[in-house]
Write a structure and sequence with these properties.
Elements (H helix, E strand, L loop, with lengths): L4 E11 L4 E6 L12 E5 L6 E12 L2 E6 L5 H5 L5 E5 L13 H4 L3 E4 L4 E11 L2 E8 L2 E6 L5 E5 L4 E4 L14
């Protein structure tokens, strides 16, 4: 994701024979793709971009089936597998209170109630169990669940998050080199 765009999802595979792309939504709902007319497709290594017009969107099995103009066959979609679908930040939906874009969490310094720095968020991962913050400290990495009982307060302006880490979660002595 470039600094002026936000990723809404990722192209996973072709669907059918007419060039529809099965897009995994990275937002609360695959419906986010309806109403969009133009997006930027970004290669997995972020070295290539491609402006794309959306001809149609329909929801199927929890995914958005997106038909891009000029992409008319499954083979065309396969060349875009794992590309992200991005829009300008100005087109991002407004957030509710206590809601954050994942890219805004990267760079936050985690501090506990005693004021000790516990690490810096280097990245995020979304999975079946929710969001994990990939935290680095002293050259080591550990994961912190992004849950209200663990990440108790976020101050984006100060790039800081107050945390109550479970005992041993960041025990770097136990990390094998």
């Amino acid at each position: 994701m470039a600094g002026d765009r936000i990723a809404l999802g990722i192209i996973r595979k072709a669907h059918g024979v007419r060039g529809e792309a099965s897009v995994e939504a990275w937002s609360d709902s695959p419906d986010r793709f309806t109403g969009l007319s133009a997006v930027t497709l970004v290669s997995p290594d972020e070295t290539q971009t491609r402006d794309a017009a959306i001809e149609s969107v329909r929801i199927h099995a929890g995914r958005a089936l997106v038909k891009f103009a000029g992409i008319d066959a499954p083979e065309d979609v396969r060349t875009l597998q794992n590309w992200t679908v991005e829009v300008p930040l100005t087109d991002a939906r407004p957030l509710e209170a206590d809601e954050y874009f994942l890219h805004d969490l990267v760079g936050l310094t985690l501090v506990d109630a005693e004021g000790r720095v516990r690490g810096v968020v280097a990245g995020t991962e979304e999975g079946g169990g929710g969001v994990l913050l990939n935290v680095e400290r002293d050259g080591h990495r550990f994961d912190v669940p992004f849950a209200a009982g663990i990440v108790t307060e976020i101050d984006l302006a100060a790039k800081r998050a107050l945390v109550d880490l479970p005992v041993g979660l960041d025990d770097l002595d136990a990390v094998a080199d």
